[in-house]
Amino acid sequence: MRARIGAAAIALVIIAVAATGYVIGWQHLATLARNGNASSAGETFEDIARYIGDVSPPSGPFDVAASVTQVGHWRLANRAGEPFTAAGPRELARALATLVPDRSTPTAPLHILLDAGTLFGHAQSLRELPSDAVLSVLIDDRHFAVARPDAVSERAMVAIRPGLLVDVAARDTFLEVLRQLERPLARSKVRMIALEPGGATLLMRTPTVDPGARHPRPDIIDPEYLGSALGGLSGQTLLLSGRLEQGNLIYKPGSGPAGEIAMDALKTSVRSSDISLVLLDASSARQPGTRNWLWQRIALSSVEKALGGATLGEFLRALAGEPGTLVVRAVGPSDDRIDLLVEPSVDDPVAPVARLTQVVSGTWSNIVTETAGSVSVRALRASMLTVARQNELDRRIVPGIPYAAQMSYLGLIVVGLLAFPTVAAWWRRVWPRETAADYPGRTGLVLAHAVRGLALVLIFLPLVGPLALLVHLSRIGHTSSA
Q: 337-344 and 326-334 as β-strands: parallel, antiparallel, unpaired?
């Protein structure tokens, strides 16, 4: 019996090694596929020139397709397909007047469609276009409004929707941010963390639910054990509130002095745990769920509303307090992660008046927090799993095992079932069927049959399935020919 169990264990190790090799190859092919799809095929100047003649968005038809060449010249074409090349602002103005001679600026602004290469590679050239022109860009067969660079910013921003701008420097980064903001929000996978010395040292896989309000309560975690507590939460999104200062997260527990956590250490724990983290740079370092000096429980009023959002973009916008204009800046993607900075738009953040307003606003927010028990959010800093990585984690049947390995394992079982007569004949030689005489009672016999059946299905079947199928098909072919 021990020899059979040992042989079964060896077979399981062989399957694990084979599955690991398969996963490595699968991931390599997936990386090649992503790199191959990262090009801007279908977004050349010729493509956008054809596009403006075929598509008329609700805001009005595009008048001109425009692209900047590598040497800095403008290539233009109107809806009739008439081309024009311009070098410098003067020639550009003459070209636009020639291509669209009948436009009336006060009643019909000029609609210009750009290609992705111009937006991400020559954003400074957009200042040469008429100030009253409405700019759009074609990316991945979708057109988006463009906010051109101003006197402060060096890059243009893309409007995902009114009031939501994305500031990125590369096409692949923009597409990842777009997928992030438009992906459905899984409310059950969002956790709110409160830091409190003496709190729990581990996090359960599922959040604690308030029995009265039927919504998740903050998980109270000891800050010393925060990194290790994240280990079993892969694929989930954690919300952590505090005040960000000089690379540290400052938190104020319900009792005792304020503490701090190094952001670099926190990001390392998040990365190794395969979770997404949203840091709420709040007006107060007090933790949600604790009580202030008036014995009022501190709450993030925007969280419950944010959880009602259908997409991650709506979730982040509600967390930020639903400002008039929200700007999303991104770094990455890299190593299956992307970092986002989400904050309200400020026209001139370096102006003394703006700085004074921020100081007064922060002070007033602290007073409100201490009296009303409500914390406001100033900005969001998120370290998110890429959509591809998040989807892979969501598809897993068994947590901790790559989806490709699980599918290949199930595939081997199916292959073995197709050749089950041959597999069964081999199995009887490897592990003969137990008899009642081998065991003193019926319980032992039933358990032995169960162990034998599990070993057959889970180990032997996927291990010999491909070879057994070849033998089975050859026997069928030989029988039919005879």
A: antiparallel
Cβ partners under 8 Å of residue 240, min gap 6: 193, 195, 249, 266, 277, 278, 279, 280
**Residue 467, helix vs strand vs coil:** helix
For residues 292 and 373, give the distance between their C-alpha atoms in angstroms, rounded to a whole number: 7
- Helix (H) / strand (E) element for 78: namely strand 74-78
For 284, list phi and psi in degrees, rounded to 5.
-135, 150
Location of structure tokens 């901790």: 400
- Burial pattern 331-345, b for ≥16 Cβ within 10 A else e, equals ebbeebbbbbebbee
- Give the pLDDT mean for 120-133: 90
pTM over 0.90: no
Plot region of 30 (φ>0 → left; ψ -120 to 50 → alpha; else → beta): alpha
* pLDDT tens-digit series, residues 421-473: 999 999 999 998 888 877 788 888 888 889 999 999 999 999 999 999 999 88
Least confident of 213-227, 302-316, 367-381, 426-440: 367-381
Name the token pair of 341.
């900075």
Residue 393, SS3 per DSSP: helix
Distance CA 102, CA 88 (A): 23
Whether 146 has a pLDDT exceeding 70, the answer reads yes
Tell me the three state secondary structure of residue 310: coil
Measured distance CA(344)–CA(281) in Å, rounded? 12
Residue 448 and residue 434: Cα distance in Å, rounded?
A: 7
Write the DSSP string, 193-241: EEEEEEEESS--SS--B-TTT-SBPPEEE-GGGHHHHTTT-TT-EEEEE
Of the candidates 288, 477, 274, the residue with the CA atom closest to the CA atom of residue 393: 274
CA–CA separation, 405 and 328 (whole Å) = 35
Q: Return all residues near 97 (Cβ < 8 A) that are at least 6 apart.
A: none
Q: Which amino acid is at 462?
A: P
User: Rounded to whole angstroms, what are the CA distances from 196 to 53, 153, 201?
Assistant: 61, 40, 11
Task: Identify the residue whose tokens are 């007090």.
Answer: 286
Phi-psi domain of 274 (left: phi exceeds 0; alpha: psi -120 through 50; beta: other): left
Rounded Cα distance between 183 and 177, Å, is: 10
CA distance 74 to 127: 13
Nearest to 363 by CA among 353, 376, 349: 376
Q: Is 256 left (phi over 0), alpha (psi -120 to 50) or beta?
A: left
CA–CA–CA angle 159, 161, 166 (5° rounding): 35
Q: Are strands 83-86 and 74-78 parallel, antiparallel or unpaired?
A: antiparallel
Instruction: Write out the H or E segment, with its range, that includes residue 475.
Output: helix 461-481
Q: Could you give the 3-state DSSP secondary structure of residue 259?
A: strand
Q: What is the mean pLDDT of the chain?
A: 80
Over 60: is that where the pLDDT of 24 sits? no
Per-residue H/E/C for 114-140:
EEHHHHHHCHHHHHHCCCCCEEEEEEC
